[in-house]
Design goal:
The complex is a heterodimer. By secondary structure, chain A is of the alpha+beta class. Chain A has helices spanning 19-38, 42-60, 72-80, 98-106, 196-206, 210-227, 236-243, and strands at residues 86-94, 118-125, 128-134, 140-151, 155-160, 168-177, 182-191. Chain A has a 7-stranded antiparallel β-sheet with strand order 1-7-6-5-4-3-2, with helices on both faces. The relative contact order of chain B is 0.16. The longest helix of chain B is centred in the last third of the chain and has 13 residues, at 337-349.
């Protein structure tokens, strides 16, 4: 019963759904996660990942949110944290405000500016995007992706959609570090090991050392946002002439 | 344009190369009026710097007139007379903001090369191998200067080129070496190596309050320069036992700070060859006086050993135990040029330092191949070579 005499405003309860709904959510989610994992494939893992927030809602009675110890960040990390596939984790620190770094990355069409293997990313709206990368022997590799998790200035998680040339999922976390002075960008990619067509395409795109490729991507991001330009010792024409 | 190019060990040629162009918005092109050969250029000349390529333009000490400015640079104007720091720095990264300019994160396009060796890469350098960025150097008629809105220092027309040229490297390097000694009034500072950096370290140590500076070398003309120009006491290590002499001169206590302006220049790297090359350089250094070991051995308890001399590899028989036992402070690193240039220009303007006293040879670019050899062999009492690309040596 609410005490009308009190002057202290009531704090709304965090548990916001009923027991029945919680049981239903948990049951559904468990089934989907189990099915997803039983596929033993990246799309399966992604499906399981997508269902994890439902499971969380079933258990905790609310949607996951930042700052309560079970943030979407943690959920995505868990989702990508399995042992399957190839994992690439790299991070970089920038002397730029977190909002600026996040906004730059969230405009996915900016990504080819510092990811050299990308020709273009086209924003299709509703969190979907089309990725065009440099494939083997002058070919182009294409896939569509969707953002599956997003927290303003904290996290973007995405996965490729069926029908593309490759299967990949990833997340990028944005954190303030050094007492709020610097921003840390942490990237985590997960993809199927290099077997089959999709795997060999990934090998072409990321090279033999995916970690080094991603590290160089993040270095270019830092150069672009901090220095405003990429360091070059010589012009492209000069380098071309000297290489002949 | 004409430029001094590396072609191999002891093979430096003056060649015609394409004029530099603006590549990035923050670039500027400088028409060079004066440029110098640095002691560290000699290690390229001797073939000890890996990742040099045939045709690389040498030189990292230069100044001149701005002839073109990129659209992203609103600090420089065509016609400005500037001295260019040898380290290239973006001005915006963590290290630049902390005034650790020579450790800039964003100026070395080949950072990955150095990272293989040192864990992290410092800033790009002009004319000093591809692992430091592969930037064409300043022993040429023109040079492209990246991040030219933070690097080049404008100099007043009242000062001649020879008075300000050494703001590009060796004067700030000698000054930082002395500042790193944390000198208190009355201190005694010993300086190993009386080349240009050593000379400026000696002068700077006096400026920063040292009561006595003891200069150590084996070339009489360099010791004479330290004695006459900077009122240093001198020790010729080919004639006296340096540790014994230093003990005697400091009442058995040892110098409060020791500066190693010799270095071993075990610089360099390609990846797998790095450690071998470093060792080779160490063996080269055995016919030198083992300056760093001696500096550590001679320094008083609780003192500071400051190292402007360049080291790159793994040091054999490094007496860390002695440094630990005596509670020494070791300070080192490439010079944070941008931090020191304005203050030192001010000291030059006020007449506290006239760096031109070290110049022994004034030549044109075409003389470079000869002068590299003369400087390397310390013939003709050579201490410092300045080249005037416009031919008016």
């Amino acid at each position: 019963m609410r005490n009308l005499q009190t002057t202290v405003p009531e704090i709304p309860p965090r548990v916001s759904i009923g027991t029945l709904e919680r049981v239903a959510a948990l049951t559904t989610a468990t089934a989907v996660v189990a099915y997803g994992l039983s596929r033993r494939s990246l799309p399966g893992v992604c499906l399981a990942a997508a269902a994890t927030p439902i499971a969380y809602r079933g258990l905790a009675g609310e949607w996951p949110r930042a700052g309560n110890g079970h943030s979407p960040r943690a959920v995505t990390r868990d989702a990508l944290g399995g042992k399957r596939g190839v994992h690439v984790r790299e991070s970089v620190r920038l002397e730029k405000p977190i909002d600026e770094v996040y906004r730059f990355w969230r405009n996915l069409e900016n990504l080819p500016q510092f990811m050299n293997y990308l020709d273009a990313v086209i924003d299709l709206g509703n969190g979907r995007s089309r990725w065009l990368a440099k494939g083997p022997a002058g070919t182009q590799v294409k896939w569509d992706a969707e953002i599956i998790n997003e927290v303003e200035s904290q996290l973007i998680g995405w996965q490729s959609l069926p029908g593309g040339d490759l299967t990949i999922a990833g997340s990028v976390n944005f954190d303030t570090v050094r007492n709020g002075r610097s921003t840390q960008v942490s990237v985590h990619f997960q993809y199927a090991p290099p077997a089959g067509r999709a795997g060999s395409l990934i090998a072409t795109i990321f090279g033999r050392e995916p970690s080094q490729t991603v590290r160089e991507d993040l270095r270019r991001l830092k150069q672009l946002l901090e220095a405003g330009e990429f360091p070059h010792a010589k012009s492209k024409e000069q380098e071309f002439q000297e290489s002949r | 344009m004409r430029a001094v190019c590396y072609y191999g060990r002891e093979d430096v040629r003056v060649e015609s190369v394409p004029d530099p162009k603006i590549i990035n918005p923050r670039d500027a092109i400088i028409k060079i009026t004066a440029t110098a050969i640095c002691g560290s250029d000699l290690h390229i000349y001797d073939g000890f710097i890996p990742t040099m390529q045939k045709g690389d333009v040498l030189g990292h000490e230069f100044m001149g007139e701005v002839v073109e400015v990129g659209r992203g640079n609103n600090r420089l104007r065509v016609g400005d007379r500037v001295v260019v720091p040898f380290t290239i720095a973006c001005g915006n990264c963590f290290f630049c903001k902390e005034e650790l300019w020579s450790l800039c994160d964003n100026s070395n396009p080949n950072a990955w090369m150095l990272e293989q060796i040192t864990g992290f890469s410092g800033s790009g350098l002009f004319g000093y191998s591809h692992m430091y960025g592969g930037y064409p150097g300043g022993q040429a008629e023109y040079a492209r200067v990246p991040f030219s809105d933070v690097g080049p220092l404008k100099v007043p027309t009242s000062l001649g080129d020879e008075q300000v040229l050494f703001l590009s490297d060796i004067l700030p390097t000698g000054y930082m070496a002395a500042e790193n000694c944390q000198i208190k009034p009355g201190d005694t500072v010993a300086v190993w190596g009386c080349g240009p950096v050593g000379q400026f370290a000696i002068q700077s140590a006096f400026l920063l309050g040292a009561e006595r500076v003891i200069a150590i070398d084996r070339f009489p003309e360099r010791l004479a320069l330290a004695a006459t120009h900077s009122r240093a006491d001198v020790l010729n290590y080919s004639e006296v036992d340096v540790p014994e002499a230093l003990r005697a001169m400091t009442g058995g206590q040892g110098p409060d700070a020791c500066i190693d302006a010799v270095g071993l220049e075990a610089h360099g790297t390609t990846l797998d060859a790095w450690y071998d090359l470093a060792k080779t350089s160490m063996y080269m250094a055995t016919d030198r006086p083992h300056a760093l070991r001696q500096a550590i051995a001679c320094c008083r308890k609780g003192g500071t050993v400051s190292i402007p001399g360049v080291y790159g590899g793994l040091l054999d028989k490094f007496p860390l135990g002695a440094a630990f036992a005596k509670g020494l402070t070791l300070k080192m690193g490439q010079t944070h040029m941008h931090k020191y240039m304005p203050g030192l220009l001010d000291r030059i303007e006020r007449g506290q330092i006239d760096p031109s006293f070290i110049i022994t040879h004034r030549v044109t670019l075409d003389d470079a191949p000869t002068m590299y050899r003369v400087f390397r062999d310390k013939r003709d009492a050579c201490v410092k070579v300045v080249m005037k690309p416009d031919g008016r040596a």
